[in-house]
Amino acid sequence: MRVVIVGAGEVGYHVADRLSAEKHDVVVVDVLPERLEYVQTHLDVAVVEGSGASPSVMESAGVRDAGLLAAVTSVDEVNLVCCMSVRGGKNLVKVARVSNPDFYADGAHLRPELFGVDVMINPERELALETLRLLESTAATDIAAFAGGAVQLIGLKVTDDAPIAGRTFAQIGAEGGLTSMLTVALRRGDQTIVPKGATEVQGGDHLYIVGTDNTISASLELCGHKPTTVHRVMIAGGSHEAFYLAQLLRQHRGQATMLVKERDRAQEFAEKLDQALVLNGDATDVELLELEGVGGVNAFVALTDHDETNILSALLAKHAGAKQVITLVNRMGFLPLAKLIGLETVVSPRLSAANAILRYVRRGSVTRVATLKDSEAEAIGFKVSSGSPLVGRRLADIEFPEGSIVAAIVRERDVEAIVPRGDDELLEGDQVVVFALPEAVAPVAELFPS
Amino acid sequence: MNLREVLHIVGALIIWTAVAMLPPTVIGFTEGLAVHWVLTFGVTASLGAVMWFITPRDVSINRREGIAIVGLGWLAVVAVGSLPFALTGVAPTVASAVFESVSGFTTTGATVFPVIEDLPRSILLWRSITHWMGGMGIIVLGVAILPLIGMGGAQLFRAEVPGIAADRLKPRVATTARLLWGVYALLTVILGILYLLLGMSLFDATNHAMSALATGGFSTRTASMGAYSPAIQWVTIVFMLIAGTNFTLHYQALTGKWFPWIRDAEFRWYAGVAGAAVMAVFLFMGISGEGWILKDAAFNVVAVGTTTGFVTADFGAWPAFCQVLLLGLMFVGAMGGSTGGGFKTARAVVVLKHAVSEVQKVLHPRAIFVTKLGRALIRSDILANVLAFLALYVATHGIGSLLLAALGHDLLTSVSASLAAMSSIGPGLGAVGPASHYGELGSASHIVLSALMLLGRLEFYTLLVLVIPGTWSRWGGDL
User: Looking at beta carbons, which residues of chain A come within 8 Å of B377?
Assistant: First the structure.
């Protein structure tokens, strides 16, 4: 499939990287030649210089034959105009990135069809949602929700004195732990494996567990963590992500203290965010952090636009005693470093944007894609459509490829998540969450035709 | 400053006042006051006509002319409005005639007459008409009906309508003014009909309906609303609350917006304060053994809180707690955009919220705080204006009280009378309490109180600008 990506920034680059790796024909459009130069030297993609808002530029990018147009520049208006003005084939799916909170203010929303847009994505808000879920389960390092939150995928680090440390999954299952949830992956060092009954859990392992909302807290305890609630959160940064997170915290009755360096932006936040305490200051200002009691907050979230500021302020907060620290890291190269210096919980805007777009690349039955940060492993939500040959078959009779595992089935009728066993039958309308290592992604997708 | 253009418009306002004198003039013929009223009407009409015709017709109003029109227009109208009291001989002194006129147009409702029933019916009607004209505003009326005040209308409108910011119902200010007067007139007619149905005479119903919707307070009885049935009093309570509410909200309700009041933050505060004060007075009176008098508590608290000033009980004899509470209500007053006076609910809320964030600033020196009323942001320049208004209110009240005390009145009388005048309440406490009147204070006190009433009604800025020399200079900005 030909994919045209407008915008070669962080989001565009990452989407191009993923899609190109999946053997799609990717064309990247951007106004800045030096960005295109960078994209071209690192990825196997074609580039076109020019504005995405120009129909002739889009024409030369080959949008007429494309199956997907992803307008993901950092300027919402350019993305919208781009989608409005292109003339593509009738199978073209148009995705526009629209991030500015003003477009969503007061419950109003742009009507995508007016702009000829099939899907609007808001990576900044996705990231804020992910951060909120991480805040709600303090110990989690990754989190993703499927089927409107009925099923969650959570990444947890096993502590050395955790109840399940030193046991095999067969033993844990026999003792009644982890019955209503499923460990879909285990990461030890640089290795990601799909665990079997004989696999032993060790302290320091990273478990990826799928379960329903209320079983997640049980898994926290099994991995040696205490469940906590969100009260006071300090958010550093004047970004859209910071804004959305403060909004979400308010809905969840948390108290946000915001550190915003730019005076105008701080004023704007103070005007628009009613419950938040907005401070005009630098996130790395040690005196200010101390004055505002960074040691006493439940969580510190660094969401500025600069990785360096985020990492430094997160370290300062952690050192001062903040119980949970979440750091936004843009550059993939910093990720291993962040882990090394003790910043376990990292969020990445590129991943959240890519996840939102990848869903529409694997069109048809796919409802949600979540990529784990350290590996390329994905959790993919599929819908069992009416004509599917899978309807009525038992899981044990379906040949799932090596490196994949059915993590959960969500049945619409009673909105209940089922932890699958071999003799469960698939019904029409079920949502199936499949966890797959990269090499298994394509074969799994073939099992669920649209 | 183009004074001749200003006088042209002021002349028009005086002519309009003369027109308003026609109904009482007609009644004057039936009670032997024909000569007095015809003289009054003639003087007023010819004064207005002379000013209108000797000044240029083509009028352009800018900022300073607009302010001068409102300030001078009010002074001129209250001056000619005092003529009926002076020329018919009901007022003992010139100062008392002026006082009664100012009290009428500013919707204060303080009276110099000890026994109201002794007054001619034409005078009673004139008192109510002054209330009704001043309630929605003589200038707003002018903007609504005088086509020539087109360009500078917005300026005039803002200078007269009380509150933080005059909302515009429609893009054109003349249309807005017409709609507001329409709502006002409609509500007055509705109340008048209700009064008739509840057994009032046509004359009393007309007078009290005009007085209530203007949050005035003049009555045709010495006992005020106390002379009427409980049903009439309850209806009056509701309509006093309506009159103290921003009329923009009433217009929205009439045009089909579902219950717009509850969505307005200022209204929620206004209704909340009124409800809490009624309950506080009711419970305190009950518990302290003065009697469980819900109707009187509600009526008098609402009458003071909306700055109407009707009375049904002598709250001057209530326990000190209730009197102090009433003094507080006198200060806060009604909503912006209503016919009521006072500091205004919105301003009080904004000042308090700002004070709270200043306290928080001690804890969080780097924090940025914004003041909001409901969902509306109060910009820092508006906040500064509100704080300056508070300073003017307190300072003017202080000076007024000091002058009254210098004239020989006691502490409670001085403090309450100056506050009741500025907030356009009417009855104060002490010697000017609900059981008493303003007739015995003396001419000097009448002048002081008249000045306070005008300052309070026009919210200071408009009148104070008139005494700044720069306003009158030909070239403008040389302050």
Answer: 271
